Amino acid sequence: VQKALHANVTGIPYPWVTCSDVIRGSWTDSPRSMLPIIKQLIDAGLRIWVFSGDTDAVLPLTATRYSIKALNLKANTSWYAWYDKQKVGGWSQVYEGLTYVTVRGAGHEVPLTRPKLALTLFRHFLADQIMPLSPN
């Protein structure tokens, strides 16, 4: 996968792991909050999607909702259930410039814990379509 993505071209000497302590412990140049950067990206006209697993204990979806609320964005679509086939895949809300999506039953790393639902989310993002409003 690294070769296909042209990743690790510098030959990092340690293996990839989820939530790397090597990176987390030495990453000191990041801002305390991404909210100002997200706001700048929205103001620049970029399409922003934020997603959370609804069982994420590291970054709970409630904390993400509070952060999004702090951006003071106008809601275009109320909080709604989205579907994957006949089952609820999660919940979503569309704001001016930002879409928030939760993924049902997913933890901190959505693609690892719910890959099928993560693919549905990614496909809708790429197609610039809101998450499915009804069972298909």
From TrEMBL:
One Gene Ontology term from the biological process aspect of the record: proteolysis
Gene Ontology terms for molecular function: serine-type carboxypeptidase activity
Entry-linked SUPFAM superfamilies: alpha/beta-Hydrolases
The keyword Transcription regulation is assigned to this record: no
Keywords assigned by UniProt, alphabetized: Carboxypeptidase, Disulfide bond, Glycoprotein, Hydrolase, Protease
Ranges in coiled-coil conformation: none
Similarity field: Belongs to the peptidase S10 family.
Name of protein: Carboxypeptidase
Organism of provenance: Erythranthe guttata
